[in-house]
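Extended Data, record Sorbitol dehydrogenase
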Amino acid sequence: MSAQAVLPAGKPHPAEFKPRDNPAFILYDKLKTGYEEQPIPELGPDEVLIEIKKTGICGSDVHFYNTGAMGLVKLQEPMCLGHESSGIIVQLGSNSVVGKGTIQLGDKVALEPGVTCRMCTDCRGELCYRIDSPYTICEHMVFAAYPPSRGGTLQRYYKLPADLVYKLPESVGLEYGAMMEPLSVAVHAIANKGQLRTGQNVIIFGAGPVGLLAMGVAKGLGANRIVAVDINQERLQFAKDYAATDVYIPTKQNEGEPRPQYSLRAAQDLLLTLGIPARGPGSIDLVMDATGAEVCIQMGLNAVRPGGTHVQTGFGPPDIQIPFFRVTTEEITIKGGWRYGNGDYPLAIDLVNRGLVNLEPLLTHTFKFKDALEAFEITKAGKDKNGKFVIKCVIDGPE
C-alpha cells in the first residue's frame, strides 16, 4: 500500500463535512419493502464515505426480495438491499489510501462490497498474495445485503475500507461503474479461475447478466469460440448479437430417460451440432456454468475436453450427481468461482476503459430511487410492462 495521505491525525477529512439525510430501501420480509432513514456511517481511519449514485439489481437481491432467502441464507431482520454500486467519495478517514495513490474527495468509484476480517488464514495465509487469493472465502466476511449484514448500498451513504473502492476512469460513467461488481464476478470466473487464453474455446451456460458478462470477458480476452447455452431463444439471440459466436438450445429429454444419460447425450449433440471436436485442436478448453442447474453442470463436464476446466459460478441444488469417472480419468479440473479476488476489479475496469468489454447493451433499464420497487418487480418478471427484455436494471441514488 502507498504512503499515507497527509491528513489531520485521527480525524475524517473534511472535518466540516455536513451529510444530508440517509434514506434507504429496506426489505422487511419477502415482497415487503419500504423506505427508512438510516444513521450516517461513522468512519474509521482507513475507511472512506461514498455517496451512492447508482446501484444495479443482482439476482441475489431478487431472491431475497421474492422469497426472503438466498439458497440456505435467510433474511433474519429488516435489511437494506443492494450491493452493485458506484458513487462519489465525500469523506476520507485519516489514513485512507488505496493502490498506488491517494483517494481524493470527489473521485467517482466502484465499490467492492465485501469486508473481510484481514486476520484469518484465508486473509493472511501463504495464499493471500497470489492472484487467486481466497480472501473472499473469509468466514468472517461482512457482505452488503447478505445476512447477517443489514447494510446494503441502496441508501445515500455507505462506508468501506479505502482499498475496497476503485477509481473509475473519466471514460466510464457511474451507471457502468455500478456494473463493475458483476463484471468482476465474470472476470474472476473466466480470467482468474478459468485462466482463459487467447484463441481458446469456451462454453457458457446461462445467458442471464453474469453469463452475458462472462461472454463479454471471453471476447475481450480473445477467445476463439464462445458458445452460449440457454433454453430461452430470445436470450440466445441477445447473446449472439452481444458476444457469443455460437448458440445452442439443449435437445429435449426423452420420457423416462435418466438425467445423467440425457446430459451426456445433450453434450454430445451440442458438439456434433456446432462441429466442435471432443478433444484436440478446436475442442472446448473451458466451461463456465452460471445457472446452477444440475443438467447444465453435467453437460458442461461431458462437453469440456480432456484436461479442460469447469468453473461453477451459478447456485443450484446443494447436492447433485457429477460424472466423476470422466472427471478422474480425463483429469478435468472443477473450480468454484465465488465473487471475485485479487486483481479482478482492476481488470474489469481496464477491459471497459479500453473498449474490450461493452456494457452499454446490457444496461436495459434505469429507475429513480423512489421507483426501486418497480425495478425489482420487472427484474423478477424478466420483462417490463411493455414486454421489453430485462438484462440489467440500475437504480439512481437518492435525490
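Summary. The chain has two domains: 23-184+341-396, 194-336.
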